[in-house]
Amino acid sequence: FKKGKIHCIKGKSGTGKTSLIYILLGLYQFNLGKYFINDQEIKGEIDWDYNIGYVSQNPNLIDLGLKENLFLQADEKFEDLNKEIFYNFDLGKIIENPREIEKNGIRNLSGGEKQRLSLIRALINKPKVLVLDEPFSALDKRNIEIIIKNLKVLKKEMIIILTNHDESLDENFDDIIYLK
After folding, report:
1. Is residue 71's pLDDT more than 90?
2. Whole-number Cα distances in Å, 122 to 16, 71, 113
3. Strands across the sheet with 52-55, in order?
4. Is-contact 15 177, C-beta < 8 A?
5. pLDDT by residue (tens digit) across 27-43?
6. Rounded Cα distance, 102 and 4, in Å
7. Rg value, the chain, Cα
8. I want to staple 112 with a disulfide (CB 3.0 to 4.6 A). Which of 2, 54, 143, 155 is the partner?
9. From CA 7, how far away is CA 92, in angstroms rounded?
């Protein structure tokens, strides 16, 4: 996997896409094959000096405020956050009125807003590797376009690996890996 590309892992349900993601994250051990990041072979335990960002199929947000969701594991402080990222992901209203979320919690956001917010959370620590497991599966066309547009910009700064089953999106990926 190399920076500058959107790497897509495809395959039918049950072929091991999420298992492969877990191997890439260092959550599962592997015993066959070789694993390279930026031409460096990964052996044994993965040393995640790479600062990895991960977004699962479900947003996995907690029903609390914006700060609590964004900074569970972040080094950055809310006041220092580059708020432009919210506008890039069409979530400007959230950053303009964070008290609304503080008051009502995350539960009032739409599914697309939650997915985009979880992606912002994954990007806060400026990861070198961004891993997305089926990031488009529950989104409408507009939200998919917003995320893809941003991924095309972000790929210049980081390695992006995602799983996807929607063939109509294939033209947006630089590298497609098929699992059988």
Report:
1. no
2. 23, 10, 14
3. 52-55, 129-133, 159-163, 6-10, 175-178
4. no
5. 887 778 887 766 778 77
6. 37
7. 16
8. 143
9. 28
